[in-house]
Specification:
Layout (H helix, E strand, L loop, with lengths): L10 H13 L4 H13 L9 H11 L21
Helix pairs in contact: 1-2
Protein name: Antitoxin FitA-like ribbon-helix-helix domain-containing protein
Organism: Sphingomonas tagetis
Pfam family, one: FitA-like_RHH
Amino acid sequence: MASMTIRNIDDALKSRLRIRAAHHGRSMEDEARDILRSALSSGTDRTPHLVDRIRERVARVGGIDLADVRREAMREPVDLS
């Protein structure tokens, strides 16, 4: 198996890892392995993007049809010279 060293971890993060490991009754190294394993176990992100969550909610009520918004042409930039 491969080894990995992670440098420059701030003290607060290391402390949280130590507390989480103690809570689960294992070493910090084993806890870090478990966190990596669960974070990388699926091929996609575990949390959906905001737009996907909005689409799911809207789909439940049959969707929404929005009118097209007419836009004006862009204005010329102000000359500040």
